[in-house]
Amino acid sequence: MSTLSGSIPPTLHVSNHPAILHKLAILRDERTEPKKFREVVRELSWLLGYEALADARIRPLDVATPMETTPCHELADRIGLIPILRAGLGMVDAMLDLMPTAQVWHLGLFRDERTLQPVEYYNRLPNSATVDLCLILDPMLATGGSAIAAIDVLKRWGAVRIKLVNLIAAPEGVAAVAAAHPEVEIYAAALDRQLNEKGYILPGLGDAGDRQFGTGRNG
Ligand code: PRP
Ligand code: URA
To answer: How many angstroms is it from 139 CA to the middle of ligand 2?
Structure first.
């Protein structure tokens, strides 16, 4: 499959932080067992979430310390976390550690193995948006089909500010998201080389859902 032609969109943020690079190596390693894999998914999610929330809106408030009252800030944006089932589930706890008041709205999508098209099988979003900033959580951005479908759902819901948090992105997926939803920012730990003929990311890490939950075969 083709690689990203042209320039990398400005909406893609890939971190080169040493802690992220170190953890990525563990995540990619085929010898990493599900328990450790889940731990590293959590740790990477926290680091990426920290970056993705850097422009969340705040409002001032006064806080009385034991010494005196001082101006502080609190989060003004209502944050929505939208994990894409299954693999996005492993990213939720870390993001809740970061933003304990976030709402979590689950969205179930799987990729049809033959067509690579996303199939929606679970959606418990209420009728209209209840948050200001949505973070879609999914470890893998491959063809981009699932991410685009999730963004479509959130836009129909009324969401305006939407970001994607992925652990590994493929150039094909980044390009597809940038074409369909050019304003959506993507935060990833790595931009990999390409997809294989089955739509798996190379070098990637195999199947993120299977590796977290100990199911199936990888790649
Ligand atoms: C994986 C992954 C993404 C999707 C990415 O999910 O977690 O949701 O594939 O592929 P795409 O960018 O080509 O759409 P999968 O369909 O394997 O479901 P799972 O999480 O239940 O394993
Ligand atoms: N989904 C995964 O879990 N891994 C890939 O490489 C592509 C899609």
So the answer is: 8
